[in-house]
Design a protein that fits this description.
2 copies of one chain form a homodimer. Chain A is α/β, with parallel strands linked by helices. The first copy, chain A, folds into 2 domains: about 170 residues, Rossmann fold; about 180 residues, Dehydroquinate synthase-like - alpha domain (Dehydroquinate synthase-like, alpha domain, Up-down Bundle), CATH 1.20.1090.10. Chain A contains 13 helices and 13 strands. Chain A is globular and about 60 Å long.
């Protein structure tokens, strides 16, 4: 087992990565606040792993809440269902929630923990690659609103993150790929050697070779933890983590939540950011090609849905929370491993890229 | 105008108290984050004061959201309505919300600010005595759940609190009294001289004599600010502020939200806490009499609703968030001006008091 620490002063917490950690009762119970614990999972992950986690929690007051599966349920209504379950069981403010599932379960559970009785403890047990390398690190929790993705939420740090790499063996291929999009993102933002490593080891990752997966998760978590530790509230550097996300959110919203996986939209968004960077003269054409090729190798889409017009795209990007007082800020690339947050680009060039006129 | 500061490190904020502050544009705009501002009010307060506040905000991007009036609307659904309004107007994360109204408007607006795009700025402009001395200080925000009061929420500090004492001239008598319950509470918790001052000046307060009101608000805010500054997260000393509240919440929940005003329930709850303290041998009978008399003079109820059986009372108190791992903690009194948080009492004596068997 490997352990790394997200340094956030009194809110610092450990990330454990290893095989078979779901059965590690000592690890799971080490960070519980009071004596009572509620595991929140969904109808897909629950049947696979809930029984083992409940067994590992041993002899204490414990129960489970099973949510429907899917981004479509990442709503305030689902969070309210969690509140109802907690109140029906008279769960008090010293209790701990455990999020057992992917990013949606983590976001909902974390937000429920942030707001239940004005904040209780929670532990992340992410079971998808995406959640392991993204949503479980950084304290972002929240839900969607019909008018915008992730528009309702809170910063709420977990007490610990427990990553059992064995859970990836049951992950559908498409979701593995979606997670790999975020893994690639860390290379693009600030870790060129990791990007090169991914180019060499993508076949191993797709074969779910345990050593390769563990390395990719660890490097991703380290990269993200470093950024988050430097900038907990996303005022500056943390915005780099949104590479591909402003384009990606527009795609997710434009086609309706659920049609595209988050990671798929981000993959496409990263290619669009790279194309825009190239058109601005900041990034070499060869780099754009390497980025597109690596994502395609991972089985990810690199072209936006044809039904989204440039005008609709721009409209959807403008409501994104990365827009500050009307000026659209994007994460763009100077090189592989060198991302930058900027509003200093010609909107005409953006429109050109959205219209696909750069690739003809 | 008087100014006091709630000391919370980088989250410190000022409380301004004075006449005519609603028209003070400099004061209202001094603490705005970006250029855009949304005033949240309700259908009762809006017609009285909204136009003046909008005028004072001058020439900037501004709009208003008007909520229905009443504790019954302090729900997640109403908060979601605020989110919808903000998203429809493409309000970004640099915007500031202004809560113009009583405690319900403040709680809803503060919670909406805490969760909108994971947290934006807000300013409290409380227009009821209760909100001025209670909900506007301390950063508690949130809403009710059908299964419990204030069970969903966040700690989110305002950037400033602007208290215009003139707003109390339009306050219904019953709401003035409800606010006085919280004022009396500060005397009981830790300020015996203030309690004695209130005994001498209750007639002036009921006549809404401006000087008396300003003094009462200021002393209340100072008392609360001192407690909150010492203990922002309510782990210890801050729990003293819940004097009368565990009984009071049970009353509010038991009879259905809205029948009793919060302050009325707290007044009754404080008398019950005093009676329990007396039965335990901690508080003199004379003190119980003074407390009951002062609250009755303010026009407040001091007897619980007869429809609440002792069993139902206990059941409702047990779900209250002040219950830690099953042990019920209450705020009780050793003397006027000397409150204590304790779980160290005989439940049989509590049952005796709930049954009204101490006053026969």
């Amino acid at each position: 087992m490997e352990t790394l620490t997200v340094e956030l002063g009194e809110r610092s917490y450990p990330i454990y990565i290893g095989q078979g950690l779901l059965d590690n009762g000592d690890l799971l119970t080490r960070h519980l606040g009071g004596t009572s614990v509620v595991v929140v999972t969904n109808e897909t992950v629950g049947p696979l792993y809930l029984e083992r986690v409940m067994a590992a929690l041993g002899d204490r007051r414990k129960s489970a809440v099973t949510l429907p599966d899917g981004e479509a349920y990442k709503t305030l209504a689902t969070v309210n269902d969690v509140f109802t379950a907690l109140l029906e069981r008279q769960v008090d403010r010293r209790a701990t929630l455990i999020a057992l599932g992917g990013g949606v379960v983590g976001d909902i559970t974390g937000f429920a923990a942030a707001c239940y009785q004005r904040g209780i403890a929670f532990i992340q047990v992410p079971t998808t690659l995406l959640a392991q390398v993204d949503s479980s690190v950084g304290g972002k929790t929240g839900v969607n609103h019909p008018l915008g993705k992730n528009m309702i939420g809170a910063f709420h740090q977990p007490r610990a993150v427990v990553i059992d790499t064995d859970t990836l063996l049951t992950l559908p291929e498409r979701e593995l790929a979606a997670g790999l999009a975020e893994v690639v993102k860390y290379g693009l933002i600030g870790d060129a050697p990791f990007f090169a490593w991914l180019e060499a080891h993508m076949p191993d990752l797709l074969k779910r070779e345990p050593g390769a997966l563990a390395h990719a998760i660890r490097r991703s978590c380290e990269n993200k933890a470093a950024v988050v530790a430097a900038d907990e509230r996303e005022s500056g550097q943390r915005a780099l983590l949104n590479l591909g996300h402003t384009f990606g959110h527009a795609i997710e919203t434009g086609v309706g939540y659920g049609d595209w996986l988050h990671g798929e939209a981000v993959a496409c968004g990263m290619v669009m950011a790279a194309r825009l960077s190239q058109q601005l003269g900041w990034l070499e054409a060869d780099a754009v090609g390497r980025i597109r090729a690596l994502l395609q190798q991972a089985g990810l889409p690199t072209e936006p849905p044809s039904e989204l017009s440039p005008e609709r795209f721009l409209e959807l990007m403008a409501v994104d929370k990365k827009a500050i007082e009307g000026r659209l800020r994007l994460v763009l690339l100077n090189a592989i491993g060198e991302a930058v947050v900027t509003a200093d680009f010609d909107p005409a060039v953006l429109r050109h890229v959205l219209a696909g006129e750069d690739t003809g």
